[in-house]
């Protein structure tokens, strides 16, 4: 990408602190000399894919006049110009209303108000972009820095031109890959990180030689999990469909099982002695594989597919969560009888882990697995792609758009 700079005055936030920005072609970077003046940005509106009611991909609307998020916590927040994002299965399901009761409840708690806005809803969990503004108290980041991050499901998402970043859930982006490649990693990567490290208690210090079974290896979370485990020295067996076997072998799995093969269940039973099973599919896999874990060795069955949000959607947050606690307790009790543990795992926003992952990417221990890159204006097609399933890595959206950049440049010059 060429870094041909053209200098424009973006805005004057306070009379004594001119914000002097350099807009780089194709939205590459914004570099501000005085980044601590809190905006009132000159630009108040942006393009964002929004939904005003739950439903299919036809409910996604491109709003050209969406409000740019404002930096609230000046010690942690940054405004980020998004260069690329990805579409996760969660986005597609949230569009249909999945998790709405729980996420609304969290929004209300965060806002300490029953009137926390549900709509317009902006989806998108991952972002890779450049810092456009930083809060006064933010250390270690300045305007123009290239960062990446992953947002919690109740936060306003990244399928927009700007997103609210935070030092808590962002880090500097790996410098060796493009924004589109980078956007494929944070949400799926941090889910795998949470599953294997936080809930599974594996790390680079203790994973060497551990035998791990990855179920649903060919998707966003699975492809990342295999690479993380290999970088930590674990021995990986993976389960995927026939056409994904070669890709999964290339990512480093020692042993790949094709679940489409007629002998699959027989072949599965032949395997034994896993220290950890990481399940990205759910359903009958628990019953099929729980006996493959070693007994009485603190071995864990970690699943990222749990009924928590569905229970809350169906029964309400209170009763649904209570039901989930009972279900989780029963599942755990059943597995404890053989000295194993079953854990439901969830994405956790984690800036520190992202920093480590960025280093691993730059060291080529982890490569982005991108299936297809869509343009920003093709967002509904990107959702359709994810909706159709059978992912082979990640579906990414490239937000860089010369037309929008030029329009903004004109607006900036006028200020
Ligand atoms: N708990 C959390 O916080 C959290 C966070 C992120 C994701 N998730 C959930 O975790 C799951 C995985 O996420 P993801 O982003 O990796 O999804 P994804 O990109 O859609 O990948 C799912 C993969 O599983 C494969 N698959 C489907 N059925 C399979 C089977 N029977 N055996 C083996 N592989 C199978 C799919 O390919 P084929 O169908 O072609 O085999 C696809 O490659 C999703 O259900 C997602 O909602 C949970």
UniProtKB/TrEMBL annotation:
Subcellular location: Mitochondrion
GO cellular component, one term: mitochondrion
Keywords carried by this UniProt record: Mitochondrion, Oxidoreductase, Transit peptide
One Pfam family recorded for the sequence: ADH_zinc_N_2
UniProt entry tagged with the keyword Zinc-finger: no
Domain Enoyl reductase (ER): 55-397
An MF annotation (GO) of this entry: oxidoreductase activity
Organism domain of life: Eukaryota
Chief location bin: mitochondrion
InterPro entries associated with the record: ADH-like_N (IPR013154), ER (IPR020843), GroES-like_sf (IPR011032), NAD(P)-bd_dom_sf (IPR036291), Quin_OxRdtase/zeta-crystal_CS (IPR002364), RTN4IP1 (IPR037397), YIM1/Zinc_Alcohol_DH_Fams (IPR050700)
Family membership: Belongs to the zinc-containing alcohol dehydrogenase family. Quinone oxidoreductase subfamily.
Protein name per Swiss-Prot or TrEMBL: Enoyl reductase (ER) domain-containing protein
Species of the source: Oedothorax gibbosus
């Amino acid at each position: 990408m060429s870094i041909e700079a053209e200098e424009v005055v973006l805005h004057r936030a306070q009379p004594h602190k001119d914000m002097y920005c350099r807009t780089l072609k194709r939205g590459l970077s914004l570099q501000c000399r005085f980044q601590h003046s809190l905006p009132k940005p000159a630009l108040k509106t942006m393009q964002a894919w929004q939904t005003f009611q739950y439903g299919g991909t036809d409910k996604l609307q491109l709003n050209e006049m969406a409000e740019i998020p404002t930096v609230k916590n000046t010690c942690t927040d940054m405004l980020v110009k998004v260069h690329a994002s990805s579409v996760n299965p969660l986005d597609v399901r949230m569009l249909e209303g999945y998790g709405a009761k729980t996420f609304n409840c969290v929004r209300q708690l965060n806002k300490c108000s029953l009137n926390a806005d549900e709509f317009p809803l902006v989806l998108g969990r991952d972002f890779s972009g450049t810092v456009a503004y930083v809060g006064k108290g933010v250390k270690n980041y300045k305007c123009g820095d290239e960062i990446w991050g992953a947002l919690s499901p109740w936060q306003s998402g990244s399928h927009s031109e700007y997103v609210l970043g935070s030092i808590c859930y962002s880090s500097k982006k790996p410098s060796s890959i493009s924004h589109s490649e980078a956007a494929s990693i944070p949400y799926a990567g941090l889910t795998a990180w949470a599953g294997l490290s936080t809930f599974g208690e594996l790390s680079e210090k203790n994973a060497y030689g551990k035998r791990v079974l990855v179920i649903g290896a060919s998707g966003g979370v699975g492809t990342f999990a295999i690479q993380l485990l290999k970088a930590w020295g674990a021995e990986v067996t993976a389960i995927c469909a026939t056409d994904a076997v070669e890709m999964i072998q290339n990512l480093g799995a020692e042993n790949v099982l094709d679940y489409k093969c007629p002998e699959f269940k027989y072949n599965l039973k032949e395997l034994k002695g896993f220290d950890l099973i990481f399940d990205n599919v759910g359903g009958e896999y628990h019953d099929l594989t729980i006996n493959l874990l070693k007994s009485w060795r603190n071995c864990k069955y970690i699943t990222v597919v749990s009924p928590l949000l569905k229970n809350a959607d169906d029964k309400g947050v209170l009763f649904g969560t209570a039901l989930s606690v009972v279900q989780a307790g029963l599942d755990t009790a059943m597995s404890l009888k053989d000295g194993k543990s079953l854990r439901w795992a969830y994405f956790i926003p984690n800036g520190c882990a992202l920093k480590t992952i960025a280093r691993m990417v730059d060291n080529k221990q982890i490569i982005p697995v991108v299936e297809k890159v869509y343009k920003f204006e093709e967002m509904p097609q990107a959702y359709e792609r994810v909706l159709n399933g059978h992912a082979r890595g990640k579906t990414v959206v490239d937000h860089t758009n010369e037309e929008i950049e030029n329009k903004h440049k004109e607006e900036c010059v006028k200020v």
